[in-house]
Amino acid sequence: MLIRNRKSWEVPENEATPHSTYLNRRALLQNAGLAGIGLMMGSRHSIAAPVSGFPPVRNPKYIVQRPLTSEKDATTYTNFYEFGSSKNIWQKAKKLQTDPWLVTIDGLVDYPMEIDAADLVKKLGGMEERVYRHRCVEAWSMTIPWGGFPLSKLVKLASPKPEARYLRMETFFNPDIASGQKQSWYPWPYVEGLTIDEAKNELAFLAVGLYGEALPNQNGAPLRLVVPWKYGFKSIKSITRFTFTNEQPVSFWENLSPKEYGFWANVSPWVPHPRWSQSRERVLGGGSVETQLYNGYEAEVSYLYKNRYTDDKRALFY
Ligand SMILES: Nc1nc2c(c(=O)[nH]1)N[C@H]1C(S)=C(S)[C@@H](COP(=O)(O)O)O[C@H]1N2
Ligand SMILES: [Mo]
């Protein structure tokens, strides 16, 4: 118990959990079995962890040949505009109450439902860990061990009707808690969308945790999307609604600035942002590397875009 009784944000700078410590702690917890599971619950975050099953077992199919980003960087350098436009919103996000958390699944489905996030997670079955790259459209990147479920499981649970072509996802709207939402020029709530085929792709993931623990609020508790072949803004946080529809959703950033943020938003080194190049990326924690097509996931996702895209590379993004 002792190793987890300090909140991560109370850990002095020079003690920040490095990669190796995370892995060792994780191995220790997995060996500890049930004791480890008990240890993870509610120890680190001020809110009760809404789901059990931590730490999840790593799926060896989804690993990355890059060092993991430090847990400290990943949890203190975040984009969550609901709490402000700076990267340093992790304290402000503590105000969000994530248990209970009502999730609505509706639209063109056989089984619409309103369900608490914890119950939804139970229905989706065993949790797994996957290490994925993350590439923000702002040209920085990181590598994160997520805990969660393939999004395809939620699609199966809802059972979309044949005419449903898109999955639209929405974040909460509560300006009293999330002061960024008082900025009325933004089209709140945050919305994102995928085609149903993208949502069924093996990589599309619903995360409820990272680094072996429940998601901290600033990373999108209790439930967020992770689509690693697309720019980070597609990976919508703190989801409250999944709507199956036959209309292409207009995403939050696309709505604000369609020339800068496309619906498809597939990572591509050849399609520059109108204000900067996308050919390289700054790695959180140090260094810079070349950006890869589909963020390195071409083998898993290129079939999705085969019919759609010919010579125009911009169509990968817009
Ligand atoms: N609801 C919501 N989801 C969001 C965002 C946001 O501002 N609000 N930012 C996006 C962006 S731009 C990125 S890069 C990732 C960042 O995820 P992380 O902060 O967990 O690293 O979340 C995405 N999901
Ligand atoms: Mo981003």
What does this entry look like structurally?
- This protein is of the alpha+beta class.
- The protein is built from 8 helices and 13 strands.
- Strand 12 and strand 13 form a beta hairpin.
- Helix 1 crosses helix 2.
- The N terminus is likely disordered.
- The structure holds ligand MTE and molybdenum atom.
- Molybdenum atom binds next to loops.
Helices and strands in order:
Layout (H helix, E strand, L loop, with lengths): L18 H14 L1 H7 L16 E2 L12 H6 L25 E6 L5 E4 H8 L3 E8 L4 E11 H8 L7 E6 L19 E5 H5 L4 E6 L2 E2 L9 E3 L12 E7 L6 H5 L23 E4 L4 E3 L7 H4 L17
Parallel strand pairs: 1-4, 2-11, 5-12
Antiparallel strand pairs: 2-3, 4-5, 5-8, 6-7, 6-11, 8-9, 8-10, 12-13
This protein binds ligand MTE and molybdenum atom (MO).
Question: How would you concisely characterize the structure shown here?
Answer:
By secondary structure, the chain is of the alpha+beta class. It has helices spanning 19-32, 34-40, 71-76, 117-124, 151-158, 196-200, 252-256, 298-301, and strands spanning 57-58, 102-107, 113-116, 128-135, 140-150, 166-171, 191-195, 205-210, 213-214, 224-226, 239-245, 280-283, 288-290.
CATH architecture: Alpha-Beta Complex
Query: Order of SSEs, N→C?
Result: HHEHEEHEEHEEHEEEEHEEH
CATH fold category name? Sulfite Oxidase, Chain A, domain 2
Give the biggest beta sheet.
Answer: 8 strands, mixed
- Radius of gyration, rounded? 19 Å
Total domain units: 1
Indicate the structural class.
alpha+beta
The shape is: globular
Beta-sheet strand percentage? 15-25%
Distance between the termini: 49 Å
CATH superfamily: Oxidoreductase, molybdopterin-binding domain
Number of strands: 13
Uncertain segments of ≥5 residues (pLDDT<50)? 1-21, 27-48
- CATH class, named Alpha Beta
Q: Cofactors and ligands present?
A: the ligand Nc1nc2c(c(=O)[nH]1)N[C@H]1C(S)=C(S)[C@@H](COP(=O)(O)O)O[C@H]1N2, molybdenum atom
State mean pLDDT (0 to 100 scale).
Answer: 88
Proportion in helices? 10-25%
Count of helical segments?
Answer: 8
